[in-house]
Amino acid sequence: MELKALPSRIGQVRRIISAQLRYWHLDPLIDQAALGVTELLTNVHRHAQPDKSCTVEIELLLGRLTVSVHDHDPRLPTVCDADQSATSGRGLAMIAAVSESWGVRPSDDAGKVIWFTLSAPSFTTAALHSLPVYGSTTDGPFGSDVTGLMEPTAARTRARSAVVG
What we know:
By secondary structure, the chain is an alpha+beta fold. It contains four helices and six strands.
């Protein structure tokens, strides 16, 4: 989803991500994902230049949920060693504490992408097989010569969602 990282929008993004994770039967990940995306969007709101525009993406692939935020500021963030009484400066440290992994990379077009991953419960793959795949067909553009390529397997299970906001 594309948005301006304004305080009023952060709550909306949290609700959208929570709803998508419920749809994917990933309720146990909602709190961690919502906390992480809140911290990333707050960083965009506070620090990104020249604007507060960003894109949030969530992806479920091979039992791993990845949440990423792309902004237009090429400056890479640093983890601060915030003092106990500090009221800010702990966002990336909190993401590191609640996620399986996290990182930042320069974006191909401009800016950067900050991401974190969460391990999805083992029942997720089975739950996703029962959901319809939007836009899929049995023959697709390749005809019927590729029988079996559309069959879901653990190695190919992928679910994505995007909402323009």
